[in-house]
Every structure is written in structure tokens, then in C-alpha cells.
Amino acid sequence: MSDLNVAPHEHGVLRLFQLDMRPEEAKFLHEPGAADQILGVEGLDLAQIDVFPVSDLEELGLYGYLNEGCGIPKDQLDRDALESVEGWVMVVRSAAFQGRAATLRPNPKMRLIGLYTEEATNWTGGKIETDSAKPFSAPQVSTQDDKPRRIGSAMLAVVALLVLGGILWLIL
């Protein structure tokens, strides 16, 4: 897979671009259609695209942003290379493509720094061995306590009938 080809239904992939442009141009990428134009793709979800100056990350840095903020495993990141990035960057998550296949044709003012995959959640689990996980391990509930509830319901019905009878007596 080429870094600039987006597979249909791609999930958990993040593309990081360095922007070689003036701050005004980079800020403009927040406008509808601007990211589409600079990446050469139509219909991007702007909520899945971040454009910011690396200096905004302060001590966290680009390495920390990708690792701690985006869930990219450390073994995919080159700290020295990321610390050398200056200026403005664009982060494009695969969700920006809304499940569609695409081929990116980035503007010459953009340079792909890297393609990263978020750490996937492992949903598999082992067999649960505890007694409480066994079928029918909960204490069985006795049905003998059912009688007081029936008496209470009957009493409520009698009171309701008396109130209804009193209302009818007042009306007539």
C-alpha cells in the first residue's frame, strides 16, 4: 500500500504532513474545502483533520502528541525525526475519508512525514474460571415471598375502589 493511497473502509491510520507555507495559508486550511483542495481529494471530514504549529505542543512535542494524544505506539515513532519538525503540520486521520477509497495528490507545499497506525484494542479474552461465572451459580430466589406482594396489591385495589366510590357518591 502506498502512503498516499487510502483503502476503502480504512481505520486507525494517521498521516502526518509538514506544511511549507505561511501561517495565514496554514490557518486557511480550517475552512471548508481548503483541505480537500490541498490534498487533491473531495469530501473530507474537517473534524478528522488537525492543522497546527508544532510550537503549540510546547513540552509535549510532536512525539508526545502522536503517542499520548493519538495512540500511536512508540515503536512506530522516531523521536529525533519528530523533534526536528518545525512550523505547521497537518494530521489526517483515516476517518476523514469517511470510508471511501482515495488517492492523495498533495500540494507541493506539503511533505508526508509519516504514516502511522493507532494501536488496536485487543478484544479477545481468556476463559473465565471463577465460580461466579459458572451457569446457575447465583443463589436461587424463593417464590414463597410472593404472598405479601399480593396482599399489598389487593389492599391498594380496595383503597382505590373506596376513593372512586366516594367521588361518585359526591357527584350523585
Structural class: alpha+beta
Rg calculated over all Cα atoms: 31 Å
How large is the share of residues in beta strands?
15-25%
Point out poorly predicted stretches: none
Q: What is the count of helical runs?
A: 5
Order of strands across the main sheet? 3-4-2-6
End-to-end distance = 87 Å
Shape, principal axes of CA atoms: elongated
Helix content: 25-40%
Order of helices and strands: EEHHEHHEEEH
Number of strands: 6
Average pLDDT = 89
Task: Describe the main β-sheet briefly.
Answer: 4 strands, antiparallel
How is this structure best described in words?
This protein is α+β, with helices and mostly antiparallel strands and 172 residues long. It has a domain at 5-117. The chain is 30% helix and 17% strand. The protein contains five helices and six strands, in the order ββααβααβββα. It has helices spanning 23-28, 34-39, 61-69, 79-83, 146-171, and strands spanning 5-6, 13-19, 49-53, 88-93, 102-103, 110-117. Strands 3-4-2-6 form a four-stranded antiparallel β-sheet. It has a two-stranded antiparallel ribbon with strand order 1-5. The mean pLDDT is 89.
Tell me briefly what this model is.
The protein is α+β, with helices and mostly antiparallel strands and 172 residues long. It has helices at 23-28, 34-39, 61-69, 79-83, 146-171; strands spanning 5-6, 13-19, 49-53, 88-93, 102-103, 110-117.
